[in-house]
Amino acid sequence: NMDSTLHYIHNDSDLSTNSSFSPEEERKSKVQDVVPQALLDQYLSMTDPSRAQTVDTEIAKHCAYSLPGVALTLGRQNWHCLKDTYETLASDMQWKVRRTLAFSIHELAVILGDQLTAGDLVPVFNGFLKDLDEVRIGVLKHLHDFLKLLHLDKRREYLYQLQEFLVTDNSRNWRFRAELAEQLILLLDLYSARDIYDYLRPIAFSLCADKVSSVRWISYKLVSEMVKKLYMASPSTFATDLMNELVEKFCRCHKWSGRQTFVFICQTISEDDCLPMDQFA
């Protein structure tokens, strides 16, 4: 029976990385002793393209939805059984399949640990960052959850890409930018004062000038938390520079909306006790 299940493996064109493996080696790489092997083989066969065309077009999506649970059951020591299937699903032509994986990649990272995440999940994560907005939102909603699992040097690489979240397929998709502001508030704990000032500050200022009020309100909170974080850092010169820029960019803005933004940011800083009152004054 195990020999007959070899056909669940995808076409050679789909698995170019394993094309040098013999069928026997391929079979052994999928063997484990946690669940009945026939059950696992049946699950892995769900990604067979012929099944999607003849049995159920939604079958790949269901497979993607269940994958973190299967990975948890098998344990990280048996990730080699699922790795090829995961990569196949991550490059599926249906965006709903890729979206499903994007929403759960942070959970899978917890299951696999930092080494497997860095080697096998980060390339998939990077692909999702360049995908359709429907897929990118899954990554964005759990951006902090995923990045906190990476080593600092790897985490810093994503500072250069955060700006790209300001660009969406549809400019009216304001919820995307609102989610970005929410995630940036969480990301403040993961980066140094210099990184916050150099990379997150320009994005925050851009969000404060958004056309949609819901995005702006979250951004005021983001800026106030940024002021608090930079003020508590040593030395607090970044906080002073940030506050001077707030005055220059918004308080002295020739548009009334910019000056109003300054007032709202001051309100948030005051209400949340982000600064001592003498420093605020």
UniProtKB/TrEMBL annotation:
It comes from the Eukaryota. InterPro entries: ARM-like (IPR011989), ARM-type_fold (IPR016024), PP2A_Regulatory_Subunit_A (IPR051023). Keywords: Repeat. GO terms for cellular component: cytoplasm. Residues 11-30 are annotated as: Disordered. The keyword Heme does not apply. GO terms for molecular function: protein phosphatase regulator activity. SUPFAM superfamilies: ARM repeat. The keyword Repeat applies. This is PP4R1 phosphatase. The lineage of its organism: Eukaryota, Metazoa, Chordata, Craniata, Vertebrata.
